[in-house]
Amino acid sequence: MSATEASHSEAHDHHDGHDHHELSFWQKYVFSTDHKVIGIQYGITSLIFLAIGFFLMMVMRWSIAYPDRPLPMVGDWPFFNKWIGEDGLVTGDLYNMFGAMHGTIMVFLGVVPLAFGAFGNYVTPLQIGAPDMAFPRLNMASYWFYLLGGVLMFISFFLDSGAAKAGWTNYSPLANITDQQYRDLFWTSQTQWLMAMVFLITSSLLGAVNFITTIINLRAKGMTWMRLPFFCWAQLVTGFLLLLAFPPLEVAAVMQLMDRLAGTSFFIPTGLHVGGNMVDAAGGGSPLLYQHLFWFLGHPEVYVLILPGIGIVAEIVANNTRKPLWGYKTMVGAVMVLGFLSFIVWAHHMYLTGMGTAISTFFQTTTVLISIPSVILITSILLSMWGGSIRFTMPMLWATAFIPMFGIGGLTGLPLAFNYLDLHLHDTYYVIGHFHYVVAPGTIFALFAGIYYWYPKQTGRQMNSFLGHLHFWPSLLCMNLIFAPMFIQGMAGMHRRAFDGGAAYEQISSQVYLEQGHPLAVLFNAIFRGGADLPVEVINLNLLTSAGAFLLALAQVPFVINFFLSMFRGAKSDERNPWQGTTLEWMCPTPPPHGNFDREPVAYRGPYEYSVPGEERDFTPQFEPDTRVTEARPLPSLH
Amino acid sequence: MEIPYTVSARRDTGLFNSKVGIWLFLASEVMLFGGLFSGYVFLRAGVRPGVDLPWPDAVYVHGPFIWLGFLNTLVLIASSVFVVLAWAQLKMRRYGMYQFYMSLVLVCAAGFMVVKTIEYNSKLNHHFGARLSDGTLLDGALVADDSHHCPGDYVTFEADKAVFSLARTGIFRKLDPYFLDFAVLKGGEEMVVNAPGGKQLKGVAELSAWLEEYAAQNPREARVTAGFAKPVTFQFRRKDVFGKRVFPDRVPLFRGNELQGKLIDDTVEIEVHTVDLQMVRDEEKSLAWAYLGEGYKAGYEGHKKEKLNDPLHRRFLEKGGTLPGGQLRIWQHPHPAGEHGGEKAAAGGHGEASAAHGSSDGHGGHGAPVVSIKGSDIHFMGAHGPKFGTYYAIYFTMTALHGLHVVGGALVLAYFLFFGRKLYRKNPEHLANRVEVGGLFWHFVDLVWIFLFPIMYLM
Amino acid sequence: MESSTEDLQKHVRTYLMVGATLFVFTIVTVLVRTVPFFDFGVPGVDAPDIAFGLVIATFKSSLVMLIFMHLNHERGLIYKVLVFTVAFAISLMGLTLFAQGNPIRPHADVIEHLHVSDVTAADVESKAPGAKAEPAKH
């Protein structure tokens, strides 16, 4: 340990000298190598992309709910009128484009950068007691690759061909043959999607290398593995998922790029005809190869989306129940098992591709197995709340809501794991409901919790609680309005990709969900159909969902106001530890300076020492030396 | 602020940061190449006999390239030894020797890329094959002409009508009748179009202006048809044709444009080195003989008989074994020109180029037969580039990615060589660490090639 | 890895030996493919040739990994990372091939209906849009 100590004190000798020389504005805020600034850059960029993704979704929801009414307000926007149909209706093309880009933007440009890039960057080094990431310049490069990929993805909307429209999964051969009518295939939607993905993957790989190295090698003195906060464990496993699962997607992207630009036929089967003509390719390729490579990433990616969220919730629950996290070691074990298993479940996305019974059984088994560690994680968090004196602070509200929302998302996934049920549910709204419950009210609630939780660390001010409630309760309600009806529609068999909301498939969409005169039907009709006395068919639930989506957009307004207003007007919480937390990030000054700590961080104990019997306070931070504990413990009866 | 453990190792992990970093990066590289190798196996194992294009038979296709691959393997192994020696010299604090070995590494890297370029050039610019509509594969070289473009790339078409798309293109939303640029006008006469409504339009500029006007007046129309006053001859490269397919009476163009009229010429001249009948149901009736003539058919039969009489082959066939790779169904010209590169090919082919269509009985000892194949008989054709079947696709993708790794690694090592002195003076151990980390990457690149060489060249 | 100059000199000799071994095995692998006398099994490429080529390549690559990349004495952490990586790479290749080798086959009744006794998945697939599908006889 002496070497560690020596190098740390050495670091601090340098510290003063380095900190004083002034960085220019550009070095400090734009081309910064400081993990906190990069984290904030990631955060703001990804929030913008989340908003863009949300906007695309609202256009789609309008088309689903009112396929026969012109798009209000935005229909006249430049570039928008390029794709919009006669009479201002949303066309199938526009819907496909927005659908593909909604998925891409939300997953690759919104949630992952916010969960991994922003929170991981900002919080992880603070929690492990490191002065910065192990490779600060690589960290900066990682952000700029991400931004480049994002910008490329965004400008593809303004290309001649519009943006990508073959679904966020970009399945071949559909994605190969799209845009073939354009002479310059390079500047077309699908090609630019692939180029952008190559940048995003590069960014993720650099980020993953950096995170894992930082957690392995830059932990502060005394920060042993079992004293690592659970959030860092989640980030570590996420890092490994990104590191090892993204390269096969990069392979798939490169191969598809070759298919498009060099005329190869990796994914083009022999004899593929498009529009009655044989495609000019040698053939012999396999569309299934693409799906395997894609889903080899695709499934771990689900855990990349959710694990940082679980990490954040674990931190907040421990802090606000004032109790140690229940089963911390079990959770660490579970998260590692989860990470491992997530690599061998991918083909449950492919039950309908003609896989035989043996291989389907294998993937079905592993998929069911992976629910065990997920349930362990959620149960542990739930049990942590048992008997605690819970403070329902803003972060805690979101974290509490996360548990049932993620639970619904997770449990509705179980039927999809079984291939015989999947035959019916595949590609229906049920699937949409399932994974959105995991990611939207699941992960995104956890991310909101994180924003409310760590906001005071960066700004020194609390976010407004009234606006917070105004944000939280409508969001919770609307999320359920949006996604709960999808289960009903899905089980009725409604397909997920119909731009008219399923009107064309009348046999399915006109099934009656609520009989005429049913009290709920009356209520529904009173709100949405001017009191008409009609039964509610499954297609009518689209109205409910879309209304929920538009209301959800409104519900985000208080958040935006709160986010900016609280920077200047929020209640001051200048002290270092406003939440009375125990982990190392509450030790450094607020806001943390470049280099983070003003004295050497040392971890003396586990991360969640709340309400230790015999202690004066209900929290014993990791960074406080042991003195009082050793005195207090032998003499509990004195009090 | 300084990041700890950039030079010295952390006590409990025993590693300095960049070593952890490079091993993690290499782990992701293992997955990257793991994915590509999986693709290789998946595609190769997935070839359905008689349905998909078979993977090229190693003997005939790889033959000339084995030695290039072999050379490159040796070069990379040598460079791998040099890089580890350079590191050892640095550890012993012998900067001069370090520089020497590191320079050798860079020389090897350059050599590797030169050999790679030769090989790519030969495959992309010399070797050419056409798969005919009955499955016959005629493989060889394209007959070169004076221009840089291969003549097989051109289609000549006499149009008397044109369908103009009114779809607007580009973010500036202009109309794009691009194909008018490919008109070949004889004797300087102007292109004249009879527009609907009785107008006569002369030249491309006038036509474009009218199109804009027409499109503005008829926003709901997708296309407009207009006749040429006199038939106009167009010459296209195939990549400018939609789907690269022409028909006897029309040429579909991008964006819904189309020319209608008469196909003049879309033949392709190929110097045939190899006839591959693996995909043909009835060898006797292969289109190859229609083009090459009966003499070659007899040669093929003889060649097959010879193979069957070969004791090695016979032993396996008598044991009930089947020969891999369709060896019996491939015939190769005894002295194919340009087997080792491509320089000789053009010269060899030129003399015979006039020996057209089905009448090339008399091949000399020096020249391979040259045939002109009708476009309608060609199912698929191309240079031996990435397009030419899944083997070539994975070959080019993997070797090009590997080549990029070589270039990237060489750049990093060159940086350590040319800009290392300052760091060496300040902290030699830091430079040694960097070289070790760079070297680890370099060894990985070598490692990939150790597998690429046998699976791409020998199997 | 802190080593004295003598140790390093010894290492250098090892490196040169390993380099020479790699050269030799490269030559062996090429000879086996190019000289018919050394060919395994059937003339041309077949399973024994492929197996032999891969065994040599694996041997060569393990030499590079163990000696040049110092994996013969590395820290535990790196082995852990690599073991998982290799496991996942194998699962990617193995399960993908498993899926390829285990497609759905038409039910026995269906085959009977088609009056085709040896229908394989490949045959079914090959009746893709381009090829004219044989009408099922009932």
Explain this structure.
The complex is a heterotrimer of chains A (639), B (459) and C (138). Chain A is built from 21 helices and four strands. Chain A is mainly alpha-helical. Chain A folds into four domains: 33-285, Cytochrome c oxidase-like, subunit I domain (Cytochrome C Oxidase, Chain A, Up-down Bundle); 302-459, no CATH class; 482-570, no CATH class; 574-639, no CATH class. In chain A, the strands form two sheets. Chain A has a two-stranded antiparallel sheet. Chain A has a two-stranded antiparallel ribbon with strand order 3-4. In chain A, α15 (429-459) packs antiparallel against α16 (465-492). The longest helix of chain A is centred in the first third of the chain and has 37 residues, at 92-128. Residues 1-19 and 631-639 of chain A have low confidence and may be disordered. Chain B is α+β, with helices and mostly antiparallel strands. Chain B folds into three domains: 17-125 and 389-458, Cytochrome c oxidase, subunit III, four-helix bundle (Four Helix Bundle (Hemerythrin (Met), subunit A)), CATH 1.20.120.80; 130-142 and 269-377, no CATH class; 151-268, no CATH class. Helices cover 46% and strands 17% of the residues of chain B. In chain B, a hairpin with a 5-residue loop joins β5 (192-194) and β6. In chain B, α3 (63-91) runs antiparallel to α12 (428-458). The longest helix of chain B has 31 residues, at 95-125. Chain B is flat. Mean pLDDT of chain B is 83; it is low at 336-366. By secondary structure, chain C is an all-alpha fold. Chain C folds into three domains: 1-69; 74-102; 103-138, no CATH class. Chain C contains five helices and no strands. In chain C, α1 packs antiparallel against α2. Mean pLDDT of chain C is 79; it is low at 115-138. Chains A and B meet through α1, α8, α9, β2 and α10 of A and α1, β13 and α10 of B.
